[in-house]
Amino acid sequence: MLVIGRKPGEYVMLDDDIMVKVVKSEEGHLRLAIEAPKEVKITRGELFEEQQQNNK
User: Fold this and answer.
1) Model confidence, pTM
2) Which of 2, 8, 27, 40 could form a disulfide with 36 if both were Cys (CB 3.0 to 4.6 A apart)?
3) Residue 40 lies in a domain
């Protein structure tokens, strides 16, 4: 796992077509903007974990 620090307005690129940008950061809260092709499925972590539990 890669862990990096980013400030609001900064971003990281995944390959050439997925951007994850910090749009707001307050103590204990973080808002991200994700720009990706429509065919890329994006799922919140708690929903992903619930799906994994249901698949067992």
Assistant:
1) 0.82
2) 40
3) yes
CB 29 within 8 A of CB 46: no
Q: How many Å from the N-terminal Cα to the C-terminal Cα in the chain?
A: 25
Q: Is residue 3 part of a domain?
A: no
Would 2 be classed as within a structural domain? no
Sequence-distant (≥ 6) Cβ neighbours of residue 7 within 8 angstroms: 22, 25
Domain range spanning residue 39? Answer: 11-54
Could you identify the residue written with the tokens 């991200």? Answer: 32
Count of other CB atoms within 10 angstroms of residue 22:
17
| Residue owning tokens 């890669």 | 2
